[in-house]
Amino acid sequence: MTAKPHPLFLGIDTGGTYTDAVLWSEEGGPKGKVLAKAKSLTTRHDLAVGISGAVDAVLQDSATDPAAIKLVSMSTTLATNALVEGQGGRVALVMIGFSEADLARDGLKTALGTDPVVFCPGGHDVHGNAAKLELSGLEAALPELGRSVSGFAVCAYFATRNPAHELAARDLIRDKTGLPVTASHELSAKLGGPRRALTTLLNARLISMIDRLVAATEGFLAKRGIAAPLMVVRGDGALVSAAFARQRPIETILSGPAASLVGARHMTGLDDAMVSDIGGTTTDVAVLDGGRPRLDPEGATVGGFRTMVEAVAMRTFGLGGDSEVTLEDGALDPKILLGPRRLVPLALSGMVHGEAVTVELERQLRAPNTGRMDGRFALRTGVPDRLAAGLTAPEAKLYETIGATPLALDRLLASNAQNATLNRLVARGLVHISGFTPSDAAHVLGKQANWDAATARLGAELFARRRDGRGQTIAATPEEISQRVLVTLTRWSAEYILETAFAEDGLDGAATVAHALVQRAVDAHPGIARFTVALDRPVIGLGASAPLHYAGLPPLIGNGCIVPEDTDVANALGAVVGQVRVSAEARVSQPKEGLFRLASGQTVRDFTDEDKAVAAAEADVRAFAADRAKDAGTDSAEIHVSTEFKVSTIEGQRMFIEAHVVAVASGRPRIAV
To answer: Rounded to whole angstroms, how far apart are CA atoms 128 and 58?
Structure first.
């Protein structure tokens, strides 16, 4: 009798620079077997191009019939990168029951920037009792907002205890504009209005980006005849259906890093380790404890903003192979600085655009003096024109000037004001800057060879000609400055790994201590006080460039660094070996003695008996979790319900305060039959 073939799983990771694909089978034991893997450049103007490049390569290498693939799972760093780089669509924030003073809390005003905000009377109290709702101001503003934003974020006071006012505003906006609307109660059941509003705002900004990614992936799969469910990795490492992720894209922040943690443990079998994943834009560092990633109970922090998204306790730093390389301002002996902004490497621009880049670099090299904008170019990202809505007149004029071919900044910009305008276009995700990066340095030194090394060398030569505070050039050769850039990247990587370890241990000033320790480790004169530091667990180095940048880590961190064989596709591999996991929660409060109020989903119900109220809450969350699990992509979920009571004792009598009921459903994703 012929053995039934093992189902095939396709993993995809869409990063800031590369899109990875891996074809995996459950055959061969617990670790399964990687049948093929491939990389293709991420094409932001049309994500399907990069996806097809990687997936077609693994299908060809493995001689696989597309119809044999039974599950497709995807992780992405696009949402994470967008928040780190301050990018995203222009959205309107609707605050119900809040005052303008609330914008100053939890970084909400900073995150809002120049995007519009509308305040409306309304909201509820802690027990779900409503204030008077007034939406006339919002309705009057909708015609103009509908033409200038890509979506809306709605947050009402105590919406987690009664979402009625958010639902009313959401329905009005959808009816009048047809644009996507995110309501805060859909994302979090936690209290803390301004931080919930921040999370909702960021979610609304990311909807168009994740929608384009899912649509591009689904379109490609259909063309290739792959009729398998599409899953997406959330920030806690769990899998959810693509439709689920489209509505809640904020939950995909740290998706790529979370998938990499799942992949790291799968590849190494290590239960306890530090995991450092270096990509083109960011370095993500986290801790594996007992075989599971630590989760951040306070919510994920990305791009300086603390959200309410439950995700791995990951520290994300703007350091990667494509990080912007700059010099410290005003120093006699300036240090090399990296990131946090990602640039398109010159080597990549040279490979794609040829003489449009090299001719300009050669012109700048012939000039007697180095200019501040030398070696820098601007080009459009290629996003749809509708995402350019709401540009100011100067922004629109400059945006029209910039095209798909790189333009040298010294020709494009005539003033500092125009430079600020360009930076705003970059922040909106409309324009890329191309310039010298660690990836270029690696090409100069022959340590990387996938793009155009000659263009990288021209960029390094221009950068080496820059002057220090004494008026001397900072390096004699392109090779010298390139080596310094790579050494700096490894050193900063060690600092970020140690900083994460110290922060996990609860130490204050983690960044300062980490910097001092690495300084002593590399300094030839360590000083009077001698001390060393060592991690208690090894580092698992992930990312295509990890073998290069992490080779010098062990003496700086006091432990080994393991770089697995398939480290270059750890995210894509982690995407296909994970599980679906979703949760639902409800609360029972006591607004007055003898009355027990259940806030569950979008409903509020009153009971006169505590046990009946709690039993109803447990039944609700179990049903909600089961429904969410199906929506998230599993038909075989196990559901666990836990209840936490808050009570007090007065004169020997138990006094009920609140019950918090949580159901967690988990299971393997459904696969095509």
So the answer is: 54
**Tokens 């270029």 found at:** 440
Eight-class DSSP state of 385: G
Assigned token pair, 416 = 């500092």
Q: What is the DSSP string of 66-101?
A: GGGEEEEEEEESHHHHHHHTT----EEEEEES--GG
99 phi-psi bin (left φ>0, alpha ψ -120 to 50, beta other): beta
Counting runs of H as helices and runs of E as strands, what totals does the chain give?
21, 29
**How many Cα atoms are found within 13 Å in the side-chain-facing hemisphere of 197?**
31
pLDDT in tens, 477-531: 999 999 999 999 999 999 899 888 888 887 776 666 666 767 666 665 566 766 7
Distance in angstroms (rounded) separating the CA atoms of residues 78 and 213:
9
Of 408, 537, 548, 577, which is closest to residue 23 (Cα–Cα)? 577
What distance in Å separates the CA atoms of residue 321 and residue 442, rounded to the nearest whole number?
Answer: 9
CA-to-CA distance for 602 and 598, rounded, in angstroms? 11
pTM here? Answer: 0.70
Q: Could you give the residue ranges of the DSSP H alpha helices within 225-313?
A: 242-247, 255-268
Q: Tell me the C-alpha distance between 620 and 626, whole Å.
A: 10
Nearest Cα residue to 423 out of 352, 360, 343 = 343
Side chain identity, residue 18: Y
CA-CA distances (angstroms) from residue 521 to 489, 490, 495, 561, 608? 15, 13, 11, 17, 66
Q: How far apart are CA 551 and CA 120, in angstroms?
A: 56
